[in-house]
Amino acid sequence: MYAIRNGQLIDEKEAVVPITQREVFFNFSVYESLKVLEGAALFVEDHVERFMDSAKILSMTHPYRRQELLEYINLLIEKNKSHEATLKIQMIGGTTPLLFLFLSPLPTYQTEWYNTGVSVISYRGERIFPRAKSNCLLLNYIASREAAAVGALDALLVNRKGEVTEGTRSNFYAFQGDTLITAEDDILFGVTRKLILKAAQKEDITVKFKKITLGDLLEGRYEEPFISSTSMGAMPIRQIDGKRTGSQFPRVRSIHQAVQGFESEELKRIKSLLK
Length: 275
Prior knowledge:
single chain; alpha+beta; ten-stranded mixed β-sheet; 16 strands; 33% helix
């Protein structure tokens, strides 16, 4: 397997970081995860744009341009002959930034979950610089570990006001009547979230941007709660903290199918460019 370090193709085993570097110790870094299907990175321009935005939010200076990153992504997929994978970009800041690109297995989810929903837990905590996809992930790690310990797929982060902001690796949504509700600020703007909002517009679903309190959610004032990410698409939530929140998810399934349709269109677009 190959990786890329500062634009150079290397053996994956050589993709290591120096523990003496101050920025490594303080985890001053940003990252991005792309979905590779049929040998193509999906929505690559959106991911690279967000990667650049994350670095800008943290005032992380670096010499890399968008076109260079696109070339590195294509090179890594080609050299590894990757058909299906998660492609990660990670950059550690400092006087001499370290840029890595590498591959990992694409997460898989049981088909039945999209019909029956999954279990999640709530976890009190707020991410620092929420608009940046940074590697300050201790909160995410601890919360997701707590979720895994009880067999839940993810944890919903709850801020000091008792509002659900997002998951540890996902965006969060719910329906209130015919309106789709999702947070507008203090969250990471997911690439799949962008597709979900596009799907809602396509299906004439009204979208309202606001945070949902955990109390209202557990009291059943919202329907069809769900989370989304690059790897999972739109995943319905069956229960939160052991409390049932729904059993039928027709609108979430419709949105997930729309996201899959957008992915298929993206694959066709990429393949047409390669002809």
